[in-house]
Write a structure and sequence with these properties.
The protein is mainly α and about 1000 residues long. The protein is built from 33 helices and 10 strands. Helix 16 runs antiparallel to helix 32. The longest helix is centred in the C-terminal third of the chain and has 32 residues, at about 780-810.
């Protein structure tokens, strides 16, 4: 069938009618509109919930007392988990003996709570600049500053920094008063023990001090005040990704970090000999058990914090009644008084937890500098050793710095609003500041400190108020836009792919209706113009114009279809009760399935129940319908139950190389059985549409054997590459070349396979198998075959329905001729029962997401999957390989979906638009589930869920176009003609 030009299939020459040409042109426009709409609306959650927190124009606030420290050393162990740092090893010895001695005698300790995305750049921004980076910065690239921001380094007299090329240049590259050095990217090789990267940073610091003995200017600079020394230690992060955080290499890296901290301390104290150095040791984020990070799991958000030196309080026993801040929660929803794990052995030493952004004001106060102007951190007084008067001054400076941001945001919003609504609790902020100053002058420091802390808390609430100032307006506009889009899709499908299309042709030619159409468009343009003028008056961001323009445009298009809507209502009103019941039941079932899919994003086990139940129901139906082929119901039952197991397995895939190799053998067995079945099954009316016995050529047999050899070779390379990398901690270039060659060559071979439906799909299954095996580390390799078996079960089910319908048609002539009208090249009108095809596709497409883990979590990307192709840190190439691995199951699903639309002779474009419609029902549900409160794991996942569904219209279309390369030549026997014809 050649009528799906939108998705890459060209129609036959000379057969395209004007109506089909207009339809294809309209659908291209509709696809472009859908891509633009989803891209624009997907950005709306950042305007609604997560606007950039950065504003400019505030004056810095310097504390009114000298800082206790002349210099500060900041040590950041990238990717170091709090529990792995504090807990003892298997022999009862602590991994960080030096820092533990600091904790127990001369410093303070706690857990620094990070906020997602728990990645290196956002974590360092929080530590050094004191604010949580705008999540939309990921679209602008976290490697370069999307916007200018202030930091502790900016405020310092001079900063010396050594470490990773991904972090150091971000903060130091544009600073004239910064001396920095970073190692080449090639050093970041996941096949090695990366602790040498930490040693490199320490060696650079030692070299700095040694050079100063010969360079008088450098020595004079080091002896000045407000000096910051920053060592970025990447080893734990690289080793965590490559070997997991419970591996000996990672745990040994903790000891390396401790030795470096001790070395830095000894070097500094010997060099300066003035006891005026403060030390901060922390981490930017943690590491999940499977060697990834990014989401809000405690293993990623809990990082160690140790402070000691000039201006830092010394250790003290845990107080018996420490419940003064019981209701305080950190950014990751941890309670302030959460108990310290017993195995840490620190229950007797007072623990002081902080939010990660609190470290910036802590460092600034220790040095007596102004805090970064965009900081939202609260000064942790329990870390600083100050007099009572100095404590009050420190809190006042911190409060004024946060308040200045609030006042600036309030001023900007007021100047741009027609009807400004102020933040009422801070309307009289000036009087509160005067009251605090009076309390200080009278010597009532405790009351002044309490008032200042309350004012700071209100200022932070005010910042959040202005962050979500336009929430209600934007939510309304976006909701109306999604509803308008979905209604427009329904109208398009009804007009183009159902018998209602023939009833509306005369309406389109009506001159009277065209004049009314012009009035509708004119009213829409007028409304859009008025809204744009109002938005310009308020100096709203350009995206606000895009949101409203898109919504008004969609509803204008809907109102322009009022003639068709009237005809549709008349047709619906004339239907009998049975038709209305059938429509209502189908709608209810569709909504129920979509709601199950929505909830499956947070509860994968729903798929287990789904396939257990569907397996039983489908097999019972097939037993009753084709009792003479009892093996088919049994196969469907076994396939569904086999797939149901995978959503019970842990999302964190454990390494299991033997299982991956065994999966290769399973793939070969399934491929050989499928090949034998396609070649030896007796041809009859049941198999006539699926099998193709007319294309048997020697080269096709050789091609099948070549695919079998490539799958076997991929299994061998899985074993060879993994074993060699584990023994020698390197990836051989020869292995790398062979793996890349197998992956590339195997995916080309299906293009030359036989064009029968079952033959081509078997070849596609074998073609993607080597690449998937080489990218697999555990049970997901078995999932590939389990999913393929369920897809075969779907084909058999649809073939049974087709066989039964043809037998019914041949035995009766009472069937409505309207239902058998052919659209083009053998396609027929869509019927209500055809909704099952896009619904089943939605279920299987989402199973491909969640069958081997929670794709909606950033940390679900298993970076070790790419180690058979590359080990040197190349983030874009590694990300591309991971995404391609995730796409392979989707491509199988879409290939089968395309084949089924050919098998049952329904227009694939119509089914595609129904898929988008169902996706958008889920999208609007997720839109209302997006959160900016609660734990950051919930917040991060809610954003991911909405983003995934919003992007589905784009990557489903992309995958349709990509898989069309493989499926466009598939041939099935037409039910209208006795001969085969290309579809």
């Amino acid at each position: 069938m050649g009528g799906d030009g939108l998705l890459g299939i060209e129609g036959s020459r000379g057969t395209g009618t004007r109506r089909q040409w207009l339809l294809k042109r309209k659908e291209r426009w509709l696809v472009v509109l859908g891509i633009v709409l989803h891209a624009v609306y997907m950005l709306s959650i950042f305007d609604i919930y997560f606007k950039t927190p950065i504003v400019h124009g505030m004056d810095p606030v310097t504390p009114r007392f000298p800082g206790p420290a002349k210099r500060l050393v900041l040590l950041v162990a990238d990717g170091l988990r709090a529990d792995k740092f504090y807990e003892p090893d298997s022999e009862g010895n602590f991994r960080a003996p030096f820092l533990r001695s600091i904790i127990e005698s001369q410093g303070r300790w706690g857990v620094s709570h990070a906020r997602p995305p728990t990645e290196s750049r956002p974590g360092h921004v929080a530590i050094i600049a004191g604010f949580y980076e705008d999540p939309s910065a990921v679209t602008k690239g976290w490697k370069a500053n999307p916007v200018e921001f202030d930091s502790v380094f900016n405020r310092s007299r001079h900063t010396f920094a050594f470490g990773s090329p991904d972090i150091i240049p971000i903060f130091c590259g544009a600073l004239s008063h910064c001396t920095w050095s970073s190692y080449p990217h090639e050093f970041e090789d996941f096949a090695t023990d990366a602790s040498f990267l930490d040693e490199w940073s320490f060696d650079q610091f030692q070299g700095l001090l040694n050079r100063s003995n010969e360079d008088q200017k450098l020595k004079e600079l080091l002896l000045q005040d407000n000096i910051v020394i920053f060592l970025h230690l990447l080893g734990c992060d690289s080793n965590g990704h490559a070997h997991r955080p419970y591996s000996p290499i990672y745990l040994n890296n903790v000891k390396v970090v401790d030795r470096i901290a001790e070395g830095v301390y000894n070097q500094v104290e010997r060099y300066f000999r003035d006891n005026r150095t403060a030390y901060i040791f922390t981490a930017d984020h943690g590491m999940s058990d499977k060697g990834s990070h990014g989401d809000g799991h405690p293993s990623n958000t809990d990082t160690p914090l140790v402070a000691w030196g000039a201006g830092v309080k010394t250790a003290r026993p845990t107080p018996r009644n420490n419940h003064s801040e019981l209701e305080f929660r950190f950014v990751d929803e941890h309670m302030h008084d959460m108990p310290t794990p017993t195995e840490w052995g620190l229950n007797t030493v007072e623990r002081v937890d902080v939010n990660q952004a609190d470290i910036a004001p802590l460092m600034s106060t220790l040095l007596g500098m102004a805090c970064p102007v965009n900081s939202v951190g609260s000064l942790p007084l329990d870390y600083i050793n100050l007099t009572e008067a100095e404590e009050v001054e420190a809190v006042i400076a911190n409060t004024k710095q946060v308040l200045n941001q609030f006042l600036r945001k309030s001023q900007i919003k007021k100047s741009n609003s027609l009807h400004f609504k102020p933040f009422k609790p801070l309307v009289h902020y000036a009087a509160v500041l005067d009251q605090i100053e009076d309390l200080v002058l009278s010597g009532n420091y405790e009351a002044a400190k309490k008032e200042a802390e309350n004012l700071r808390k209100l200022a932070l609430e005010g910042l959040n108020y202005f962050q979500t100032y336009d929430w209600l307006m934007l939510m309304t506009v976006i909701t109306l836009g999604y509803l308008g889009w979905m209604l427009y899709l329904i109208i398009h499908v009804l007009r183009s792919y159902t018998p209602l299309a023939t009833k509306s042709l005369k309406m389109e030619q009506s001159v009277h209706s065209r004049s009314k159409l012009g009035k509708v468009h004119m009213c829409g343009c007028l409304l859009m113009g008025i809204i744009c003028v109002l938005l310009l008056w308020e100096r709203s961001p350009p995206l606000y114009h895009a949101y409203t323009a898109m919504t008004v445009f969609l509803w204008t298009q809907l109102f322009s279809e009022y003639q068709f809507l009237k005809a549709l209502w008349r047709d619906f009103s004339g239907r009998n009760t049975n038709d209305i019941i059938e429509l209502s039941a189908t709608t209810a079932v569709s909504v129920f399935v979509l709601e199950v899919l929505v909830h499956s994003f947070t509860e994968r086990r729903l798929y287990t129940w789904c396939f257990l139940v569907v397996g039983v129901l489908a097999s019972l139906y097939l037993f009753r319908s084709i009792p003479w082929r009892a093996w088919i119901p049994v196969f469907v039952l076994v396939a569904c139950w086999f797939l149901s197991v995978f959503t019970l397995m842990p999302a964190e895939i454990p390494d299991n190389t033997p299982l991956v190799i065994a999966s290769g053998a399973l793939i070969l067995m399934v491929g050989v059985i499928a090949r034998w079945f396609d070649s030896h099954t007796e041809m009859n009316k049941y198999w006539v549409y699926v099998l193709n016995h007319d294309l048997k050529k020697p080269q096709l047999t050789l091609l099948f054997l070549l695919q079998v050899v490539l799958v076997g070779l991929a299994s061998v390379m899985v074993w060879l590459t993994t074993n060699h990398r584990r023994r020698h901690q390197e990836l051989l270039p020869l292995h790398q070349v062979i793996n890349w060659s197998i992956a590339g060559f195997s995916m080309v071979l299906p293009l030359f396979s036989a064009t029968g439906l079952f033959s081509r799909l078997t070849s596609i299954y074998l073609g993607f198998a080597p690449t998937f095996l080489l990218l697999s580390i555990g049970y997901e390799a078995v999932f590939y075959t389990a999913l393929a078996l369920v897809l075969v079960a779907w084909i058999l089910f649809e073939n049974t329905l087709l066989f039964l319908s043809k037998r019914e048609v041949s035995s009766t002539t009472s069937r409505s001729l309207e239902d058998k009208i052919v659209l083009e090249h053998g396609n027929r009108w869509l019927q209500l029962s055809d909704l099952r095809i896009p619904l089943i596709f939605m279920v299987l497409f989402n199973v491909a997401f969640f069958g081997t883990g929670n794709f909606a979590s950033i940390a679900s990307f298993e970076i070790s999957s790419v180690y058979r192709f590359i080990t040197v840190f190349r983030p874009f190439l590694m990300s591309a390989l991971l995404i391609f691995k995730l796409f392979i199951p989707f491509m199988l699903v879409i290939c089968v979906f395309s084949a089924i639309t050919k098998l049952v002779e329904v227009p694939r474009s119509g089914c595609y638009f129904l898929v988008i419609l169902f996706s958008d029902v889920m999208t609007i549900h997720f839109f209302f589930l997006v959160r900016n409160t609660g734990s950051w794991m919930e917040i991060g996942n809610s954003i991911s869920h909405f983003g995934i569904m919003s992007a589905q219209v784009v990557f489903v279309l992309f995958l349709f176009a990509l898989t069309n390369i493989y499926t466009k030549d598939i041939q099935v026997r037409s039910s209208h003609l006795s001969s085969q014809k290309k579809v």
